[in-house]
Design a protein that fits this description.
Elements (H helix, E strand, L loop, with lengths): L1 H16 L3 H27 L1 H47 L1
Helix pairs in contact: 1-2
Organism: Phenylobacterium kunshanense
Keywords: Signal
Protein name: Cell surface protein
Length: about 100
């Protein structure tokens, strides 16, 4: 969207260069109005409930992923302890 706005401004700038002073003023006013409109639309989009909901969902998903990783690490540690205890027990049986 930003690229489109920049391209529009450049195109308008080239067109204005070939115009009279009055036409340049009008084009400048039109450009300012368009920039204000785009700015307002971007602000509305950022403040929209949909964008805020997506942000909340991303935050929840990140929290869920963190919990899954934490649980997996805990399970791996428990498995390692159980495996070490089993090897130790088997080693003790073999020594007897």
């Amino acid at each position: 969207m930003r690229t489109l706005a920049i391209a529009a401004v450049l195109g308008l700038g080239l067109a204005v260069a070939a115009c009279s002073e009055a036409e340049r003023r009008d084009a400048g006013n039109d450009l300012e109005a368009a920039a204000d409109k785009v700015g307002a639309e971007v602000k509305d989009a950022v403040d929209s409930p949909e964008v805020k909901e997506v942000g909340a969902e991303i935050k929840d998903a990140a929290g869920d992923a963190g919990q899954v990783i934490k649980d997996a690490a805990k399970g791996a540690a428990e498995g390692a302890r159980e495996g070490a205890a089993k090897v130790e027990a088997e080693s003790g049986d073999a020594a007897n």
